[in-house]
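Schema walkthrough. Field components (list of strings):
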Amino acid sequence: MKKMLSGNEAIARGAYEAGVSFASAYPGTPSTEVLETIAKEYPLIHAEWTPNEKVALEVAAGASYAGARTIAVMKHVGVNVAADPLMTLPYTLIRGGLVLVSADDPELFSSQNEQDNRHYARFAKIPMLEPSSSQEAKDFMIEAIRISEKYETPVMLRTTTRISHSMGVVDLGGAAEQKEPTIERHPAQWVMLPANARRRHPVIEERIRSLRAYSNTSSLNSMEMADTSIGIISSGVAYQYAREVFPEASFLKLGMPYPLPDETIRDFAAKVDELWVVEELDGFIEEQVKAMGIACHGKDRLPLCGELNPDIIRNAITGNAPESIKEHVLPGRPPSMCPGCPHRSLLWALKRSKCFIAGDIGCYTLGFLPPLDAIDTCLCMGAGINHAHGMSKVFGAGKEKIAAVIGDSTFFHSGITGLANLAYNNGAAVIVILDNRTTAMTGSQNHPGTGITIRGEQTTHLDLEQLVRALGITWVRTIDPYDVKNTRKEIREALEYKGPAVIISKAPCVLLKSRAVSGRKLYVDPDICTGCKVCIGLGCPAIEFKDEKASINDMCVGCGVCSDLCGVNAIGGEK
Amino acid sequence: MNVLMTGVGGQGIILASDMLSEVMMRYGCDVKKSEIHGMAQRGGSVMSHVRYSEKVASPLIPFGSCDILLSFEELETARYVAYLKENAHVIINSYRLSPPSVISGSQSYPDIIPIIRERTEKIHMVDGNAVAEEIGNPRCVNVILLGTLSTFLEPEEALWLDCIDSMFKEKIRSVNIEGFKKGRLVKVQ
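Field assembly_structure (string):
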């Protein structure tokens, strides 16, 4: 049977067909739909959202030690969080197949950097497969489990946004049987203290040699010989772009870019006149090809930054200038927080208190855009609290107003340790936890604070206020951010407090059914509106400014914040 | 065949392109489609590439090779003219959603027709929102536009209706079928 599947849905399908029984992930674009699909479509696979990617990889390792086939799924920067277990996991004996799915984001559609995670495979000394279509995403997932069990190693399945989020026709197959878990003890292979790890390191080196031999014979890497005046080595979606623009060229398509098939590459290079390596981001393959003493083109003409596309590849190889198209300057349309978003009024109030606002990763990062201009830093998950603490420490207590904002899911991911540090080292920054009861940016996933699992089952919920108090912070207030007056008062008191202060700004994401807005549209009385633009300062997409007056469009959900801010009571309607 | 769908996050573009892909797969084509999820979707500019033929390599449409552009919002049509083939068909929902700089009054909403005319004269305006109001469901704009698009494509109505039938839950199935049929009746040159 054939079905249209995204790369992520195809990976989920591959996990099912490979007999995977345990899957873990933290949501992150472009990886999120792998675990969502497993939870929705394949009830025989245990699926869980973990608080972060390190947990996701470690629970998968535990399941694998018990003999189960497992996958841990994360976006590229998530692998940084999981890098600690990842570097030592290959030293240990893998029983049930273990696949780490890393979804990279060239062009930074929804990320803070565009790191190339193929380097992790080489760094951790584990094999890596890279699909170039949805069909391959499914097939390679199955092959990755097989390689993992045969070579007793974790395997990385690396995708990019254009593989994860592109759809293609996929042939569906049947499912392999899941493996029954059993307890075994392998202390020499599982207890990584120096004496054991020292003996395991040569095992990894030998394994990579065997895998290189496999890479040389595997059909994952295939030569497609045609016109030999130009030969292109490529992998992933870049292969498809190159195929599109050079249908007559010869190709060496690499489904397994690590370890590279050295003999196949020599063989291919000898058959073609001009050799090109076409790859997105870093020259990962090209550098290794050049280290083999083989001359080739690649990053001398192709960009290191951003995603590739058929046009970039055509122009780089032919040397032609891109077709010039008359440029039109059009008003930009950047993403923005939704109308009625509870983050908006909180950030507006925090900005009015004239403090430095260290930010974090989530929808609220969009608060950096004008007119709010309310986010001053964004580095990585959980960094904001630590930025604020470090900054306020060097000034000394009470010298500068410094705050941090962090979402609930991000706080559970990486914020708790920072807050423990702030309390332990007697910091004075104000930390605002934006508790919107979900992981909003990635499409509303549950987390330990919601009390609901990925499959919608009720479970224990982590009480934020109790947790913050347990970390040693005594000044804690839970507020309703839609109540602007009280929000400003609490922020003022928190900033005046000489010690760590935490505000929990609690209101459900406006995209959730539990949202706390009426849904009824407000309106502006044009006879009363003075055109002062206070409401425009919220940056709400529902408020427009035309002919020197504010007006409210159909996107309004009736949160009422603009009405509270209006000094002349021009905004009315049922809230 | 290359079909590009453009608009603003939240307009139902991804679902519309899913439906086109499903129909073309059932029609017997190889199909690929590509779009961006996540941060960009929060009210930002979005586009979805749908490509079908005997065999499709790249999921992205190269510049200058889009056969039909279906745009859910006027300004978002002009943003992507570089993808258009000469004389491509452009179907535009006559609907304006002001971007932040227009909302705040610092820029004005541009006249897009001259920009599109530089690439093609085959411009078809459809008032999808008015049709949606007629049938009493403002969320149906995407199937209405899909209905209009379907009159430019080979598959017959029955195949489309089969797909809509299987892709929507019962509660919203009939209103979407009604929207699709109304969209097919929209007169285009």
